[in-house]
Amino acid sequence: MRGRLLAWLSLAFPVLAWGLSFPSIKAALTEFPPMTLALGRFILASAFLGLVNLVRRGAGERTKWSPRDKGALVLSVLTGITAYFLCENHGVKLIPATAASLIIAGIPILTLLAERFVDGKKLGLLGIVASLVSLVGVALLVGVPEAENVGSVWGYVLMLGAAVAWVFYLFAMKPLQTGHSNLQVTLWQMVIGALSLVPFALSELPDWRWPSVAGWSHLAFQGLFCSAASYLLYNYALDKLGRSTASLAVNLIPVVTAAAAYFFLGEVLGLWQWLGGALVLGSVLAVGLKETLQKT
Questions:
Q1: Please, what's the b/e burial string for 47-80 (b: 16 or more CB within 10 A of its CB; e: otherwise)?
Q2: Regarding predicted confidence, which is higher, 221 or 124?
């Protein structure tokens, strides 16, 4: 009982941190160029996880990485870090933080569709309906002519790109889920991910300027809490509670984002956007609850 409670508390941390990350990114982008912000984030995450690994002395590490493992590791970085943050940090700059979070919340539906084509997994009636409802929800999120505070359509395109990149990341991670410790995999992802972002950050060199204390605080929060600590705690909760339960809890992220964006950024979504967000979340929750009930 105590171990399960610890797992739930471990899951609550990344849900809160990732929910706050969207308004934090939006605020930090007023002082950092998008890819420079991402690079700083992963440098901090790499340093933190490196210290954790040093304390643990590489516990659980497999002695050799096969060529297949190395390929999967690089692919996971290119999709889940390089492509994802290239799209997300530019996308969040163009649209409300809450809308960006709601687009990302549709990842389970995109994963369901990807599994249909890659693994031949049947969608079923609920999967088909949920996919269509989610598509309508995204269309409403982008907005109608009368909607206010919609942002640029390109911002939504970029956030959809981020969501697709994360789906590719989930598939790339499959070979790495056995034989290596979560700490080792995450550490190498952070290090290689930081290196992959260097060329993009250097291209923003003309836009570099010394940030304020608030800017440094946002960078530290994203690197230490949203990337390093959250990935470790989420992986622990994933192992103890299972994928379905962990996925359902993560769907609460847009709720945290909406509250934070309202209080700290003054963002208020229009009626159509809230309706679209509700359709996206509802479709994801329906599919997730079905999978959870089937496994109990």
A1: bbbeeebeeeeeeebeeebeeebeebbebbbbbb
A2: 221
Q: Tell me if the pTM is above 0.70.
A: yes
Local confidence band at 237 (pLDDT 50, 70, 90 cut-offs): confident
Closest listed residue to residue 287, CA positions, set 132, 96, 151, 95: 132
Phi/psi for 39 (5° steps) reads -60, -50
Handedness of CA 156, 220, 57, 12 (dihedral sign): negative
Q: Which two three-digit tokens encode residue 159?
A: 């956030």
64-78, 114-128, 221-235: least confident range: 114-128
pLDDT tens for 74-109 read: 999 999 999 999 999 999 999 888 788 878 877 777
Residue 147 has what pLDDT? 47
SS (H, E, C) the chain: CHHHHHHHHHHHHHHHHHHHHHHHHHHHCCCCCHHHHHHHHHHHHHHHHHHHHHHHCCCCCCCCCCHHHHHHHHHHHHHHHHHHHHHHHHHHHHCCHHHHHHHHCCHHHHHHHHHHHHCCCCCHHHHHHHHHHHHHHHHHHHCCCCCCCCCCHHHHHHHHHHHHHHHHHHHHHHHHCCCCCHHHHHHHHHHHHHHHHHHHHHCCHHHCCCCCHHHHHHHHHHHHHHHHHHHHHHHHHHHHHCHHHHHHHHCCHHHHHHHHHHHHHCCCCCHHHHHHHHHHHHHHHHHHHHHHHHHC
Tokens 């997300």 -> residue: 88
